[in-house]
Structure formats: structure tokens, C-alpha cells
Amino acid sequence: MKLSQFNQLPAEQAQAALAHCVAIKRWQQAVVAARPYASLAMLYQQARLLAEGWKRQDFVQALAAHPRIGERASGEGKEAALSRQEQAAVGADAELQQALRLANDDYEQRFGHLFLIRAKGRSGQEMLAELRRRLANTPAQELEEALAQLREITLLRLEESIA
Ligand SMILES: NC(=O)NC1=NC(=O)NC1=O
């Protein structure tokens, strides 16, 4: 979608155009409310700024829309398709998938929620290494890291949707 189109859509449709970027309604509504944007750079900057304010409850709300790393997103929605595309690097390596499954289990035991990482541009091995590295974080450190990854995923999806 072009920026000019996004600027002119009725608010509900503009919000729907952002829904697959991240499942945080407050963020979607705030990005829409700040229209019209004079440039793409201004849109992306505002979107990033608004994402800086995310807290734990936003994060938990957003996680529901992300499949585990290494597991194929089911469903035919746009989010599921994006997740499959982003996670394509994990591929069909059964040993790697098993290692990711075990590491995801450890992570969820320790932090009580899904492990989230910006998967695009990362190999399955890199993500496994990151998962194992982050397992050593304190809960506070890990929330910050996970929020930063959610922001990266969100901005990547926004830059692909409105350009
Ligand atoms: N658990 C996850 O990190 N999931 C995902 N990361 C991405 O970049 N796309 C996903 O679906």
C-alpha cells in the first residue's frame, strides 16, 4: 500500500491494514491517529516511537499471534503466512527442529511465555544460539530483549505493508 492511500483510508480500514504487523490494538490505533504522515520515514519513526512504550501486558497480547520458532504457523491468515515466510530458514532439518523444541520448552518453563525473535534474515542455528543465550537472562533483561525483537518484527512488517 502507498503512503498516500494509508493517509486517506477511513480509520477502521487503516487500522485493519496494520493489524498483521502486531496484535496490539493500542499501537495500531495510535499509528492511525497520527495520520497524515508527510513521508514514509515519518510513519516508520512514529511507529517505532509508539512501540517504545510497550509493556509486559502489550507483549503477552502480541505473543498470541506468533507461532513458536521452528513450528510451522497454521492457519490461512496474513499473520500466519508472514510467520511461515519469516521462519522459512528453519527448514526441514529434523535435528534442528528437535533442538529448538527442547530449547523452547526450557525457555517457556523459565519465563512463562513464548520465545520471540525476529526470525527474518536469521538461520535456524542462529536462532537456536540466541534462544540458548537468552535463557541465561534475568526475567527483566529478557522482557527488554523480547520487546526489542517484537519491535523489529513489527517494523519489518510495517515497512513491507506500507512503502
Ligand atoms: N516465536 C517467534 O519468534 N515467532 C516469529 N518470529 C518472527 O519473526 N516471525 C514469527 O512468527
Overview of this protein structure:
One of its GO terms (molecular function) is 2-oxo-4-hydroxy-4-carboxy-5-ureidoimidazoline decarboxylase activity. It catalyses: 5-hydroxy-2-oxo-4-ureido-2,5-dihydro-1H-imidazole-5-carboxylate + H(+) = (S)-allantoin + CO2. It is an enzyme of class 4 (lyase). This is 2-oxo-4-hydroxy-4-carboxy-5-ureidoimidazoline decarboxylase. The protein has 163 residues and is an all-alpha fold. It has one domain (3-161): Orthogonal Bundle (UraD-like), CATH 1.10.3330.10. It has helices at 3-8, 11-18, 25-33, 40-51, 56-63, 78-86, 94-111, 124-134, 139-161. Helix 7 (94-111) packs parallel to helix 8 (124-134). The radius of gyration is 16 Å and the shape is globular. 1-(2,5-dioxo-2,5-dihydro-1H-imidazol-4-yl)urea (2AL) binds at residues 66-69, 83, 86-87, 114-120, 153.
